[in-house]
Design brief:
This protein is mainly β. It is 8% helix and 24% strand. Pfam families: Dioxygenase_C (PF00775), PCDO_beta_N (PF12391).
């Protein structure tokens, strides 16, 4: 099974949002309002949206990294012109959000959000800093592995998929119920990026490759 179940007892917040009854899945196409709703386009993107390290007056603290890959459909074909968004914690493991109050420092030069459009080859690319692990109170001594949230939009605002990208070799994988909620081990591995020397830029940033394959990469319920 590729995708996590709606209800996974180890991930406590799923009990609050999982449906109590069997889902009704009508075979209907998108409504006209969905197709005519605003969709982000080239004119909506800022010049520095894909470089999270240059959005403020100074450079953020932490390990600078390049994260890139391709957005592909189930047949392996590139998905062109799709909006890809990312959001993440800073290098100390804290989000620039009022809801995050754990005692790690905020970075005034890092907001932790970016976006870009995929190219003709389906490729996206972000420059950022490697996020830190953080506590999340799901269970005693609970820590999330370092990760970056990804969101992919389709042809309408309501067509959105959300997933997470992890980093290789993280010792917290075995203790994280979100990662472990995906039943198939091979599917879990598809959420883990790979270090790539060809993407790495000398004396500047380490590089990671991670492809998103629609229908194959696990998505959040």
């Amino acid at each position: 099974m590729t995708h996590p179940p709606y209800l996974y007892p180890g991930y406590r917040s799923t009990a609050l949002r999982a449906p109590a009854q069997e889902l009704i899945m009508p075979k209907l196409g998108p409504d006209s309002v969905e197709l005519s709703s605003p969709v982000f386009g080239h004119q909506e993107l800022g010049r520095l949206d894909e470089d999270l390290t240059r959005q403020h007056s100074g450079e953020p603290l932490g390990e600078r990294i390049i994260v890139t890959g391709r957005l592909l459909d189930g047949a392996g074909r590139p998905v062109r012109g799709a909006l890809v968004e990312v959001w993440q914690a800073n290098a100390a493991g804290r989000y620039a959000h009022l809801g995050d109050q754990h005692p790690a420092p905020l970075d005034p030069n890092f907001t932790g959000a970016g976006r870009c459009l995929t190219g003709d080859d389906g490729r996206y690319r972000f420059v950022t800093v490697k996020p830190g692990a953080y506590p999340w109170r799901n269970h005693p001594n609970a820590w999330r592995p370092a990760h970056i949230h990804f969101s992919v939009f389709g042809t309408a605002f309501t067509q959105r998929l959300v997933t997470q990208m992890y980093f290789p070799g993280d010792p917290l994988f075995a203790y994280d119920p979100i990662f472990q909620s995906i039943p198939d081990e091979r599917a879990r591995e598809r959420l883990v990026s790979r270090f790539d020397m060809d993407t790495t830029e000398p004396e500047w940033a380490l590089g990671y490759q991670w492809d998103i394959v629609l229908g194959d990469t696990p998505m959040e319920a």
